[in-house]
Specification:
The chain contains 3 helices and 25 strands. By secondary structure, the protein is mainly beta. Strands 1-22-21-20-19 form a 5-stranded mixed beta sheet. The longest helix is centred in the first third of the chain and has 6 residues. The two termini are about 30 Å apart.
Amino acid sequence: MNSERNLVSFTPFGRAAALPAAALAALTFSAAPANAAVPSVTATVETAPVSHSGDAADDPAIWVHPTDPAKSVVVGTDKQGALEVYDMTGARIQRISGDYGNNVDLRGDIVVSADDEAAGGNGAMHIYRIDPATRRLTWLDDVPTEVTAHGICLYTSTTSGKLYAFPNSTSGRVEQWELAVNGSDVTATSVRLWDAGSAVEGCYADETTGKLYLGEEDVGVWVYGAEPTAGTTRTKLDSTDSGGHITADTEGITAAGNRIYVSSQGSNDFTVYDRTTGTHLGRFAVTNGTAADDCEDTDGIDATASNLGPAFPQGVFICQDGSNGTPGTSGNQNFKFVPLQTITSQF
């Protein structure tokens, strides 16, 4: 969609400005090149292109409205200098200039972006609250990190009820912060710091299992415990090597319903796993449709099985598109919305 409605801009940081089931079962799923035949789905909605050209759009986060699902929104990063908010038609309803966040995540009404250019290049988390009445973000605070925050995911502990953030870095360092938000006041405490190896970015912390999924870009997906006392013991969900199903880079990670999804950037598709067992179930691609083009070279993804109104009553899968072309808009990068049931019906 090209239209922009009720555009808001401010600078809080002081910067310048369907395959049948039988056919699916017959497929052999392996670490596949980009042109391999995989099941495909299409997007029914795409967002307005981000504000900046080049490699700009990166990561989406879905906020489900507490009383009116159709008023849910998607927060997306433009890492060249803006955080953008879209409604479920893909129209932009807010642009926050000066946020160079690479990744973004949210829990409840708290939104956090990871900006590795903030704090003089040392990185920081920008913390916002979303107002259900206006569906707009208000900046609360900046929290400098020890890891030059590049990726981010949030987690609400099912044991303590505390909110945590996991900023991580291209250096491989990962940090866990406890965040306490009272009104407009933010208290942040670092509770865990470790080295995952090489460059990391995509992550997902799962309240249903207490697991933290962390993407080491050239290696695969590691599984840690999400509680601050979990230490650094880890297992591997999947890998980019000859026995794995991911083609580097390992990028976005998310979950919805009983499935985990990972962006296999090098093969322009997405791997699917059972959320309970971690079993690899297959892969799919988002290809050209009548309303939007495909998702290529995807960085961030997000998904939810929640009702998001008439357009997405069974949830949505969202992917960043590294090359935005027709049909639909073309030009700067954007995000594609895929009805979740078109994916889950195949896995």
